[in-house]
Amino acid sequence: MENKIFDSREAAAYLHICYDTLVRSVRKNEIPHFKVGRKLLFRKDSLDEFIRKQEDGANDDLHTAAQN
């Protein structure tokens, strides 16, 4: 299994978000990341899991809204 590592710009592109949004989310510890020196890095599989959790949360919200 390949474990791709993204830098900040690549991670923002992969998530289809603005670079500044990525940086703000990292500061809030909302997006999984790690640092090597001053460089922010992101594992592709961690970002994929982050996306899955976001989808699950959105689906839960839709399900709750449909019940009301």
Automatic annotation (TrEMBL):
Any one GO molecular function term: DNA binding
Listed InterPro entries: DNA-bd_dom_put_sf (IPR009061), HTH_17 (IPR041657), SinI_DNA-bd (IPR010093)
Top-level taxonomic group: Bacteria
SUPFAM superfamilies associated with the record: Putative DNA-binding domain
Domain Helix-turn-helix, residue spans: 7-54
Protein name: Helix-turn-helix domain-containing protein
Protein source organism: Aminipila terrae
